[in-house]
Write a structure and sequence with these properties.
By secondary structure, the protein is an alpha/beta fold. It folds into three domains: 2-145, Rossmann fold (3-Layer(aba) Sandwich), CATH 3.40.50; 149-200 and 318-393, no CATH class; 206-304, Arc Repressor Mutant, subunit A (Orthogonal Bundle), CATH 1.10.10. It contains 14 helices and twelve strands. The longest helix has 17 residues, at 210-226. The radius of gyration is 22 Å and the shape is globular.
Length: 393
């Protein structure tokens, strides 16, 4: 046990003070006994746990961080370890990569039933369905999602500001006033392209090649988060990777499922299942026509965020596709997006039609629609700077 305490203390001491404090820290009800934090690989779940430990407990030994990557847990269950931790005065156990233990959900249930004074906070992949696939956790686990950096968080980190987030209604109805509170402190467009290229994943702060690191992360998403958690045989790995590549280079269009099935030598049904797994892993997003949903074919398949576009196929990145991907990625967390009507990019929440375009693009302004414009600092009326939608979280 002392080895784990030493590791915990080392990690807490060496966590950077300059890291952005995520808003999720204040959204979680920390009084709950079993809390699950899901998120795609690379968005900072481990850092988030350590920030929580440092902020709330410091060096207090009542809180302990463990990572189930440790081979020690191949011979010892979570519940057994948690019992010993509680006997030593432990109150909060932070478990990283919980899915590395095959019977993790059963073990967490044992902890919940045996140790009513112990709180457990654990992280898992975005592919996991905590309640649907683990009925023993129904009614006892509270689940939250940690996302990559928003443009707002990226700006705050790069400039030392502390800009707040805004709701979609606030941006639509009050964007001119909001922009006036931002522009005196920073020029957003000077940082926007950097964000599109590498700002979503916090590991851009590390002194390593970002694109190579992201490609490694993307492979891990498929090899671990999809194959391991969905229990897919290793021989199908190359098919899923090829499917992702084909979807990426095809651009944001409706997938030709029959052709894709031929290309990766599998059935149409399997192609649709693989597309769903890629979406669960936050590698792609599926955009449906209004009223449609999975298992129907999506109207458009888009990359989950703009950084993925530059890494998976850096030679061919269409600006319009990048801008639409940025918009979708920022809104899908709290809003429903469908394919827009003719001439429009998206239908948001079933009522707002949006066109995403760059400055100078000739638009026939429809007062009933909204236009998110790239390369403008200040908007007017129903024409809103695209970058401002990066302030939604």
């Amino acid at each position: 046990m002392e080895v784990f305490y030493r590791t915990h203390n080392y990690l807490i001491e060496h966590i950077s003070e300059s890291l952005v404090r995520r808003d999720l820290m204040d959204e979680i009800d920390w009084s709950d006994r079993l809390i699950g934090i899901k998120g795609t690989r690379g968005v900072g779940k481990t850092t988030f746990l350590l920030q929580y430990a440092k902020e709330k407990f410091g060096t207090d030994r009542s809180c302990l961080y463990i990572n189930l990557n440790n081979f020690y847990f191949q011979g010892r269950g979570i519940a057994d370890f948690a019992g010993e931790f509680q006997k030593r005065g432990g109150r909060v156990l932070l478990i990283d990569q919980v899915f590395k233990q095959p019977d993790w959900s059963h073990e967490l249930r044992l902890c919940y039933d045996r140790y009513p004074s112990l709180k457990i906070v654990f992280t898992g992949s975005s592919v996991m369905r905590l309640k649907e696939e683990n009925p023993e956790l129904n009614g006892i686990v509270k689940s939250y999602n940690l996302r990559g950096f928003s443009f707002r968080e990226f700006l705050n980190l790069q400039t030392g500001n502390n800009f707040p987030a805004y709701t979609l209604d606030e941006i639509l109805n009050n964007h001119e006033h909001i922009v006036k509170s931002i522009l005196p402190k920073v020029r957003p467009m000077e940082h926007f392209q950097d964000y599109l290229h590498h700002g979503f994943y916090p590991f851009f702060l590390e002194k390593r090649n970002f694109s190579e690191n992201l490609l490694k992360t993307m492979n891990m998403m498929i090899e671990v988060d999809i194959l391991l958690l969905k229990q897919i045989e290793l021989k199908y790995l190359s098919k899923i990777k090829k499917l992702l590549y084909l979807l990426a280079v095809e651009g944001p269009v409706a997938p030709n499922v029959s052709q894709l099935a031929t290309d990766i030598q599998t059935s149409r049904a399997t192609v649709m299942n693989y597309i769903k797994y890629l979406a669960d892993a936050r590698l792609i997003n599926m955009v449906y026509a209004n009223g449609d949903e999975f298992p129907k074919k999506p109207a458009r398949v888009m990359m989950h965020n703009t950084c993925l576009m530059y890494s998976i196929y850096p030679v061919k990145v269409e600006e319009q596709h990048v801008l639409e991907t940025f918009f979708l990625n920022n809104l899908w967390k709290d809003h429903k997006l469908n394919k827009g009507e003719k001439g429009m990019s998206f239908l948001v929440d079933g009522k707002y039609q949006f066109r995403i375009c760059t400055e100078g693009y000739r638009i026939k302004n429809n007062p009933n629609h909204y236009y998110a414009l790239h390369r403008i600092a200040v908007g007017h009326g129903n024409q809103i700077p695209l970058w401002l939608f990066g302030f939604l979280y």
